[in-house]
Amino acid sequence: MNSIKRMIRFLDKSLEIVSMILLVLMIIVTVYQVILRSIFNNPTSWSEEIALLFMIWFGYLGVVNGVKDRTHITVEALSSRLSPRIQRILEKISDVLICGFGILMIKEGVVLYNISNMQRLPATQINKGMMYLVLIICGFMMVIYTTLQILNISIDREEKLTLKSNTNATEELL
């Protein structure tokens, strides 16, 4: 079990680092493109494709991060009025549906990757399959995180431990 927890912590940290790197690179490429186009009137042919590729990857990694931290959009108007037991059941149903969506992302990602694998992006000549590879990777990560949530396997993450201890201290003061 400890090796699984270490693997999940590594996956968490990798997700965070790759997301930050992609965001920074996307900003740098976009600013570079704007400067060359606006100031020097000499736009690059490759910068839009690279920025788009970074944005696609960053967006899907953001979805996985939302699933991991349970910060995806929920409608609480109804569920907040239900009993805690029913809320937990609805949460598990939500986890199963998100897991199913992750499986669908893997399945359709493989199809899209195989279709586009032989194509190249026009300006950069990067394999167009790179745009769809993220579906497979993020679908797999969503399945892992939702499976952990369905099975109530808790991975002690430093941020959540701090948050919980602060909440407990606040409750004790009240």
UniProtKB/TrEMBL annotation:
Q: Which InterPro entries match?
A: DctQ (IPR055348), TRAP_DctQ (IPR007387)
Note the topology in the membrane: Multi-pass membrane protein
One Pfam family matching this protein = DctQ
Which keywords annotate this record?
Cell inner membrane, Cell membrane, Membrane, Transmembrane, Transmembrane helix, Transport
For the Tripartite ATP-independent periplasmic transporters DctQ component domain, which residue ranges apply? 26-152
- Biological process annotations from GO: C4-dicarboxylate transport
- Chief place of localization: membrane
Residues spanning the membrane: 15-35, 50-68, 89-110, 130-151
Subcellular localization, as worded in the UniProt entry = Cell inner membrane
**A cellular-component GO term for this protein:** plasma membrane
GO molecular function terms noted in the UniProt entry: transmembrane transporter activity
What's the family? Belongs to the TRAP transporter small permease family.
Q: State the protein's name.
A: TRAP-type C4-dicarboxylate transport system, small permease component
Query: Species name for this entry?
Result: Natronincola ferrireducens
Q: What is the lineage of its organism?
A: Bacteria, Bacillati, Bacillota, Clostridia, Peptostreptococcales
